Description:
By secondary structure, the protein is α+β, with helices and mostly antiparallel strands. The protein has a four-stranded mixed sheet with strand order 2-1-3-4, covered by helices on one side. Strand 1, helix 1 and strand 2 form a beta-alpha-beta unit. It is globular.
Amino acid sequence: MTPIPDPLVLYDGVCNLCAGSIRFVVRHDRAGVFHFASIQSSLGRDLYLRYGLNPESMPSFLVISGGRAFVRSDATFEVFRRCGGFLAVLAWLRWIPRFLRDPVYDLIARNRYRWFGRADTCLVPTPELRSRFLE
């Protein structure tokens, strides 16, 4: 498998909440370091398997940064940390024990289609962002 850009955000391509989250990351990633791929893409499935995750029971969000895979609330905090600025301050919430924060994440992830809807197609990036989206 070819090397992947670092950091890479894998997201649920048909989830409206996830698409909004990607737009949020793009807006706050002033250095333009993040790259993106849909979990439903062949690259997304391959990366899930590479990191020992089951692509059939995917969380809504996976971040690969520094050769590590971050899932659930850890993925969110890694994005905050890498964006910097005021979001880096929010990354300190990572110190809240995982057993408290991951159930909240799971509740939102489990209900994301019901609460935010589902798109018929994956997020289509603007021409200026196209180079940051893989597959």
